[in-house]
Amino acid sequence: MSLRTTRKLNNGTEIPAIGLGVYKAEAGEEVYQAVKSALELGYRHIDTASLYGNEEGVGQAIKDSDVPREEIFVTTKVWNDEQGYEKTKAAFTHSLERLQMDYVDLYLVHWPVPGKFKETYQALEEIYRDGKAKAIGVSNFEPHHLEELLETAEVKPVVNQVELHPQLQQQAVREFCDKHNILVEAWAPLGKARYFDHEVLQKLANKYNKKPSQIIVRWQYQSGIITIPKSVHKERQRENVDIFDFELTEQDMNAMKTIDANNRLGAHPDEFDYGV
């Protein structure tokens, strides 16, 4: 088990179980150095998005690294004001240009924009068939969004990336996705470090001589959740993924369940301001 450990997506593609998220990493030098240091540490999965405004730095760091492009799993996403069939295809072309790549490994619909996400996904299916994205999926989709999408989708999403951390464990989403062979990926996986002092996390951290962040990443890893903790600091990046030398017991995993409080840090997809 290592940072090279992968999960198999429903189209046969392999995705590294742990990656680096770069949301709010500043464009230019900050995101460039963050991706560079992560690759040096052995990360092989980088998650960005059109919205983040830092695709250029991500692409440049990958291009300048000693790691062959085909060994790095790159995700980006289409933002809400880019959705719709033609606009999505144009947005994807712009993302590729900024990344300086001729394909991405995973392309996601960032949010389920009402009245548009099915049309947007049709564009993703064409991008996938053209080989420009090795896999396609969605982000922030509730089960009812997925049900609606699956009515017309010709290519099943491989991933649903949602806010997921110990205080928001997303059981209903996970059960639906599991039933349909869609992997769940966690954004804000560390809960923005807001409750590292929680009694259960402190107890497990002491038990294994680990940090609360490491307990959380290990819990997600053992739960089969793909996770992309964000840090622009090399030591923190190293720390976040130092989770392969211990294993949570069944009792520990059950204790983690007790932290769930349905506590969101972001908007619920049904209450998001889509501006439509």
Automatic annotation (TrEMBL):
<comment type="similarity">
    <text>Belongs to the aldo/keto reductase family.</text>
</comment>
<dbReference type="InterPro" id="IPR036812">
    <property type="entry name" value="NAD(P)_OxRdtase_dom_sf"/>
</dbReference>
<keyword id="KW-0560">Oxidoreductase</keyword>
<dbReference type="InterPro" id="IPR020471">
    <property type="entry name" value="AKR"/>
</dbReference>
<dbReference type="InterPro" id="IPR023210">
    <property type="entry name" value="NADP_OxRdtase_dom"/>
</dbReference>
<protein>
    <submittedName>
        <fullName>Aldo/keto reductase</fullName>
    </submittedName>
</protein>
<feature type="domain" description="NADP-dependent oxidoreductase">
    <location>
        <begin position="18"/>
        <end position="260"/>
    </location>
</feature>
<keyword id="KW-0521">NADP</keyword>
<dbReference type="Pfam" id="PF00248">
    <property type="entry name" value="Aldo_ket_red"/>
</dbReference>
<dbReference type="InterPro" id="IPR018170">
    <property type="entry name" value="Aldo/ket_reductase_CS"/>
</dbReference>
